[in-house]
Amino acid sequence: MIAVSVLDLAPIAEGSDAATALRHALDLAQHAERWGYRRYWLAEHHNMAGLACSATAVLVGHIAGGTSTIRVGSGGVMLPNHAPLVVAEQFGTLATLYPGRIDLGLGRAPGTDQATARALRRHQHSSDEDSFPQDVMELQRYLGEPDASQSVRAIPGAGTHVPIWLLGSSLYGAQLAAYMGRPFAFASHFAPDMLLQALDIYRSTFRPSASYPQPYAMVGTNVIAADTDAEAQKLFTSIQQRFLGMVRNQRGPLPPPVDNMDALWSPAERRQVERMLSVAVVGSPATVRDGLRALVERTGADELIIAGATHDHAARLRSYELIAQCAADAVPAVRP
After folding, report:
1. How much of the chain exceeds pLDDT 90, in percent?
2. SS3 of 319, please?
3. Which residues face 305 on adjacent strands?
4. Whole-angstrom distance, CA of residue 270 vs CA of residue 278
5. Cα dist. 102→10, 87, 91, 92, 291 in Å?
6. Which own/partner pairs from 122-128 qualify as long-range (CB within 8 Å, at least 24 positions apart)?
């Protein structure tokens, strides 16, 4: 059946704290492993009061150390914030500690604001974005077989061949992933506008590589499942409120659900939020099963990676449990 994975931003719920968010992340990962999810990926964000995932490599190690079989990785590391050698050393160390279980997803955006980018000691100019392909290739060399001519090596890292994924929310990432023969993950969980066009470009221009003779596309989506459609829709209002905050440039902890979003947003704001969440699947098991099937049929995804923040941790666990059951029944997939 089609592979499903978890995308976790370690959300900090309103009234809670970062320590609780990190405990919940490990708890969810341990349950996800039992429920058959393929990967557990963690995103990199900085200076955001509602997210506890800033030290991504540290958190990947924490999750990998608390699980046994599920693949753990970044979705993703924002490469403009880091020197490629540092990322190679971090993920090379992780791959040495947890062989065969570590993924390295790379993003081109800084994942933060300009002031925070400067605090990270990286300058977000156009030249930094232009250097992204070169940085990816440099990182790839550090993780490949060491060359006698290399004066700088990642130790640990060299020879680990950590799988590198390219992430994107536009056509650029799709083009680069195709050119480099890498697997590609599209961030349609928050920026779905170019999803189908990006997947078409990725597949039609893909150049086979030694590791990936065929294209492999992962599609990100928000999914909330509950016993009834009404319950799921109410839980989903926490995500809708978070996206409304993005529209208003207001960031904070994940708010509790509300009975009616119309009291919170204007018609224009509602349209913006609904556009950003247009590939979300929300509802009872039957609704989610049909929604996942439709999404895979529309995109031809080889894998789905699912974000699904809820204010209540028990509701989040229940949601991912139901999603795993729905995915097992939804769509068969032939994977390379």
Report:
1. 87
2. helix
3. 5, 220
4. 12
5. 18, 13, 8, 9, 29
6. 122/80, 122/81, 122/82, 124/80, 128/80
Displacement of CA 336 from its chain's centroid (Å): 21
Please give the full DSSP string across 257-307, using - where no structure is assigned: P-S-GGGT--HHHHHHHHHHTTT-EEESHHHHHHHHHHHHHHH--SEEEEE
**What confidence score (pLDDT) does residue 335 get?**
42
**Tokens matching residue 61:** 């190690």
Report the C-alpha gap between 270 and 267 in whole angstroms.
Answer: 5
DSSP secondary structure, 99-145, as one string: TT-EEEEEESS-SS-HHHHHHTT---SHHHHHTHHHHHHHHHHHHS-
Quote the pTM value: 0.94
- pLDDT tens digits, residue range 63-120? 999 999 999 999 999 999 999 999 999 999 999 999 999 999 999 987 677 788 778 8
98 Cβ neighbours under 8 A, 6+ residues apart: 61, 64, 65, 72
By the 8 A CB rule, do 12 and 51 touch? Answer: yes
pLDDT at residue 13 in the model: 98
Model confidence over 119-156: pLDDT tens digits?
886 655 544 557 899 999 999 999 999 988 889 999 99
Distance CA 336, CA 327 (A): 19
Q: Is 259 exposed, middle or buried (0-12, 13-18, 19+ CB in 10 A)?
A: exposed
- Number of Cβ within 10 Å of residue 267's Cβ equals 8
Q: Which residues pair with 42 in a beta bridge?
A: 8, 74
Selection from 217, 203, 229 nearest residue 281 by Cα: 229
The answer to whether residues 223 and 306 touch, using CB atoms and an 8 Å cutoff, is yes
Interaxial angle between packed helices 171-180 and 132-143, expressed in degrees from 0 to 180 and rounded to the nearest 10: 40
